[in-house]
Amino acid sequence: MATLTLASRQNLFDIQKLKAPNGGAVDVTNTLVERNDLIGDLPAIPANGGIFHQGARVATLPSGTLTNVGGTWGSSKSERTPFVEALATVRSRFQSPKDVLQTEGKEVSQALVSSEKDNHIEGLGQSWCNLLLKGPTTPAQNALVGLEERAPYNAIDSEFTYDNGGSGNDLRSGWLIRPGVDKVHLLYNPNHPTMGIEMMDKGEVFVTDPTAASLDAAEGRWDIIIEFMMQQGLCIRDQRCVKRIANVQCGPSDVPTADFINNVIRAANYHTMPGEMPWHLYCDAQLYTQLVIGANSQLMVYTSDQNIYRTKLLMIGDNVIVRRLDALNYAVGSGEGAVT
Fold first, then answer.
1. Which of 160, 181, 124 is closest to 271 using CA atoms?
2. Any idea where the domains of the chain sit in the sequence?
């Protein structure tokens, strides 16, 4: 078919790759899974507008007036800034001609379908996380802007965005986020009881060739179709609860630990009130590894008689939990653009 090629639907080549010499199904190892702690860390609440969420942030507080007993004082009021957060809808489809799945035994075809279901769900999560951080290349969703492009995180101001001083083609960012229903949380459409993640088996669908000269002459076949959808958003209710440590130099030989950790501590303590939940520091695999290496070089004592190296960095101080977010990964030599 003109709009559905072998590259976009299951075919005999895929079936053969899953067939073992004994006629059964081979084991499939997915080496493309990404670590995505963000979805599990943030609470999710229903959006008040279906596919968008509307709210207001307090911009200024009422002010008091110093006055003598018997004197006068003026009135004052607070100011609020409205905001709108959009939900990103990401969809994908599994489609396979029915007769393709019947060319081999049921074990092979079931293994293929099962693997594709897992892969579609993983792919949707990765796509959504990349949209959340970087935004769409062509902004088609109303008001959907990635964190990297949002103000005030797209410019250095030493309050919301901190400059780590790196340069070159291997720049990364570390993101400090404080989860909470009144801080930073996920959004889902209340009309979807699955909290925005759905898989619907459409069964067998008759499809025709849209290039046929007439409907009567159109050839067709029966396809198995399964639809997948992920519809979630990110709500920054309190802008003080997101901080970006930008321009972190992360080349293969760089170890930017001291400056980076100092900036993390500065950012985490700038708007921290006693008794609040800890910050979560999200960084890519390269930056996380360099943090571990840098922390090891600062150790004054061995951690045990079995292992003199720490291979994990769980926290920075007592209020920053270090987390991995593979959506921040970049290939060596193609990092983020510098934030100025």
1. 160
2. 12-56+81-328
